[in-house]
Hints:
InterPro entries: Acyl_CoA_acyltransferase, Diverse_Substrate_AcTransf, GNAT_dom. It comes from Treponema succinifaciens (strain ATCC 33096 / DSM 2489 / 6091). Residues 1-156 form the N-acetyltransferase domain. One of its GO terms (molecular function) is N-acetyltransferase activity. The chain is an alpha+beta fold. It contains four helices and five strands, in the order E-H-H-E-E-E-H-E-H. Strand 3 and strand 4 (86-96) form a beta hairpin. The protein is globular, with a radius of gyration of 16 Å.
Amino acid sequence: MTIRRANEKDIPRIIDLLGQVLQIHAEIRPDIFIPGTTKYTDAELSEMLKDDLKPIYVAADENDICVGYAFCQIREQPFSNNMVQFKSLFIDDLCVDKNTRGRHIGEKLFEHVKSEAKRLGCYEVTLNVWAGNTSAEKFYEKMGLKTKERQLEYIL
């Protein structure tokens, strides 16, 4: 297993994995997510691959086939002037192919992201998890993440 930056040849597999994530989200929140779609298009992914502030890391198997990814964003904090300034690495999306789960690929991806965050001088690694995605919550808690804030909603 190799963790590396994504490249153009990974796009078809990333699209497949984005579809898997979307399906999980659509089952949790059918009022928001549209089954059969993906978060990004091929063209958007191609542009993102060039953006060092939005690195995409992939876990590649022995045949260099992408079996998981971590979409990241380097963010400057704070969002207001009453907070200490720092850099944060935000995980926008992390997925492991449903056919390869249980092989610690997600752990390896997350550890790589943590190492990259340290290398880049980040103070923290953050992410969001949809309520109801209990397997993701358990995974991130196992990886040592703690709740930083909660976002509440009132559906009209």
